[in-house]
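Batch manifest line 245
LIGAND: GLP
JOB: complex structure
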Amino acid sequence: MIDVRVLPDREAVGVAAADLIDAAVIDRSERVLGLATGSSPGPAYAELIRRHGQDPASPYRSSHAFLLDEYVGLPPDHPERYARVIRREFTEAMGIDAGMVHGPDPDAPDLERACRAYDAAITASGGVGVQILGIGTDGHIAFNAPGTPFSEGTHVARLSSSTRRDNARFFDGDPERVPASAVSQGIATILRARALVVVAMGEAKAEIVARLLSSDPTEELPASALHLHSDVTLVLDRSAARRVS
Ligand code: GLP
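JOB STATUS: finished
ARTIFACT:
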């Protein structure tokens, strides 16, 4: 059962998602975070920074973090590399050392091997305790596009044209400049996290949220895999919840 919470606005969504992450890190002593990029987690990250950023004894400072995905083909110093985005938008202000933040290696000569190594590193860390997730308008989670087998671990993923269009806002509005592929945790990797906090906000997500909640698990709708997990909270603002009956 997905636990659905509807909040009045993005600030309230951030507070609710931060409460769920704090419950894992502070109450349940989880020390491995799963981090997503994109705009959906932004308010939760801002709230966590407000609560803990200045605290030298914050348990987040001794936590590891694993990124969901990373573009293939961007130079290491590109500002849209997810490793740089997450540092800029969250981990630096939280006092999490760069060495504690891990991502799939998009520059490895053997990408398949790098994917297996990434899954192994997550497992060796004890596994992700709490994973924050957004949802793409086509129902993707991480970069798992419709049709991706639920059984896949971290793998090289092609970006659909709709995802490249959605992400063009980070690349001067030009979908052609959005990388065509990424290294992404698979659905199987994501479902191994002990708790999932999924955030969707805005009118553009209303349709996919309603479809996800009314769908049985099907590979045609990657986010429907969330129904297979026993600890999922979907945090919505009013606009994203508009079509939920
Ligand atoms: C991107 C990311 C996903 C993210 C999704 C939604 O392509 N790879 O991890 O959840 O799209 O993005 P946003 O939160 O900006 O709507």
